[in-house]
């Protein structure tokens, strides 16, 4: 059996540059992996099967993990069937790249299980056809991404700061979020150069000040829970931001503070959210 860890991500900064003729959107973003993760187990089997610990997640051809298996199958000499199980911890449709992380984990796992010896570059190329976040999730870390997310430039890895991740009990689908962008002219661009320089300097305060997401102002009027989550974290003295297309909100915890203590305070207040303390990976 092969086990792969599927790490989630946050977007420290995100600009949407416009829609391409193929329907995808050009982005300019800084990805950061976090230790919040799913676990994907793969083993050889007589027949293919995909199961998941999360009952609300379909395990059919709409699942990116299923599509990853189909995409890599032509590289297998004897068309080997596998059994795949996803132990889900990353919330679904949350802007944390849970589906993309699982997809990347299947690509990496099958590469090992079938001894294909494909380099990461080849896996990223295959992953690009499956989802915009998949190429980053192949290797993770701290990266600036362009194109639809497949043009990756590694940045200096950030220290293992705590991150508070607050997930409201609502869903935001990525295609709906991009539709809002297409019909809006109010989103403000983020200074990506400032973020890249702040990451290079490993300056906590500068990074927090440089954080921004063009999706945030578009999503918040339609999903009030995002604003409530931001308010909760702001009252703790943090600088929160919605990640990806939302609705999840995160905040970096200053190195001198304890993220778990802050999370406990939110839980004790009985907030109707899932609060997760994780560390940058």
What does it look like?
The protein has 281 residues and is α+β, with helices and mostly antiparallel strands. The chain has two domains: 153 residues, Ribosomal Protein S5, domain 2, CATH 3.30.230; 118 residues, Alpha-Beta Plaits (2-Layer Sandwich), CATH 3.30.70. 33% of the residues lie in helices and 29% in strands. It has ten helices and eleven strands. The strands form two sheets. Strands 1, 2, 3, 4, 5, 6 and 8 form a seven-stranded mixed sheet that branches. A four-stranded antiparallel sheet has the order 9-10-7-11, with helices on one face. Strand 1 and strand 2 form a beta hairpin. Helix 2 packs across helix 3. The protein starts with a strand and ends with a strand. Belongs to the GHMP kinase family. IspE subfamily.
**CATH first level of the largest domain: which class?**
Alpha Beta
What CATH architecture label of the largest domain applies? 2-Layer Sandwich
- Large-scale geometry: globular
Looking at the structure, the CATH topology of the largest domain is Ribosomal Protein S5, domain 2
Q: Which residues sit in consecutive blocks of at least 5 with pLDDT less than 50? A: none
Judged by helices, strands and strand pairing, the structural class is alpha+beta
Radius of gyration: 19 Å
Overall number of structural domains = 2
What string gives the helices and strands in order? Answer: EEEHEHHHEEEHHHEHHEEHE
Helix tally equals: 10
Strand content: 25-35%
Main sheet: strands, sense, barrel? 7 strands, mixed
Mean pLDDT: 93
Query: Termini distance?
Result: 25 Å
Domain GHMP kinase N-terminal: 63-141
GO molecular function, one term: 4-(cytidine 5'-diphospho)-2-C-methyl-D-erythritol kinase activity
Active site: 9, 133
Protein name: 4-diphosphocytidyl-2-C-methyl-D-erythritol kinase
